[in-house]
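Subject: Sanity check before I submit

Could someone independently write out the C-alpha cells for this chain? I want to compare against mine line by line before I put it in a report. The sequence has 333 residues.
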Amino acid sequence: MTRYDKILGGLLGAAVGDAMGAATETRPASAIKEYFGGWVRDIIPSPEDVFARGCPAGFVTDDFSIAYYTAKEIAARKGVIDKQTAEGALLNWFESPYTYMAGPTTCGAIMALKGEPPTPTYPFLSYDNSKGTNGSAMKIGPVGLVNAGNPDKAIEDAVIICAPTHDNNVALSGGCAVAASVAVAMQDGATVYDLVEAGLKGAEKGDKAGRERYKTICGPSIVKRINLAVEIALRCGDVEKTMFELADIIGASVQAADAVPCAYGLMVAAKGDAFESIVGGVNIGNDTDTIATIVGSMTGTLNGYFDRKYIDLINKANNFDLEALAKDLDACY
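---
Independent answer below. Compare away.
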C-alpha cells in the first residue's frame, strides 16, 4: 500500500464518518434504530431535527470540514506546521459554508483571532471546564498523515494546531492521542494495538503539554478511559454490544474524554475494519458525527480505505477534491 493510499484513506474515512453521522447526531442509539428502521449504514440526507438539517447527502459538518481546511493549509505550506498554519486554517475555514455548525470553543477562538474576543458567560470563573471538547480530535487527522511513523512529531504538531482553540490538558490529550495513532497507522504493518499504544502515549503527552504550557481544567483521564474502552470492546466481542456499553459507561458526548475513548473502543471492537468502525460511531448516539470522524480517520488510514461511490458523493456535495488533497499532502514528504 502506498503512502498516498493511506493518506486518501484517512481523509475519506473521516469524511464518510462525518457525512454518515450527521444524520444520527443527538439521538440515543435506541432512537436511531427506531427512527431509521435499523442501523444507519450509508450516507443519507439528514432529517429536520438535527444540526445538519437541510443538508444534502454527503455534505459534511464542522467535524471533517475543519480537518479539510487544516489539511489544505498544511499542504499549502509544504508540511510546515506552526502557529501561522494553525491560525490560517481556522480563518480560512471561518469563510467556508460550514461555520454555522461551529462549536462554541472553536467559534470563540476564531472571533478572538479576528480581534473580536467574545464576552465570557461567567467572567468571574478562573477555570472554564466546558472547553475540554472533542473539537481538537476531530480536526487533527491531517497532522498524523504528514508525520508517517513519527508519532512524537505528530504529538508536538497536534499541540500547535489545537492550542488556538483548545488550550487545555483535556482537549490536548484527546487531540494528541488521535494524531499519534494516525501517524502510526501510516506505517505498513501497523496493527490496531499499535494504534492504541500510540494513542495512550499521545494522550499522556497531550495532557502534560496542557498542564505545563497552557491550562489545567477538570476532566477524566483520557489515558485511563482509552484503556477502559479497549477493555469494554474485548469483553463485548462485537461492535453493537460495544457501542451500547461505551455509551452507557463512558458516554458519547462532545467532551474529548467521552468521544476519543469511544473511538478507540469501536476501533478495537471492529478489529480495525474502517467501515464497521465508522458504522459503530454513526449509531452509538449523541455526538455521532464526531466519533465517526475520529475513528474513520484512524482506521481509514490504517486500511487505505477507498470507496469510489463515497469519494464522488462527498466531493460533489462539498465541492472538495479529496484525491488532489491527498496528493498535495503526500508531496509534503
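---
OP: Matches mine. For the report I'm noting this point. The first helix runs from residue 3 to 21.
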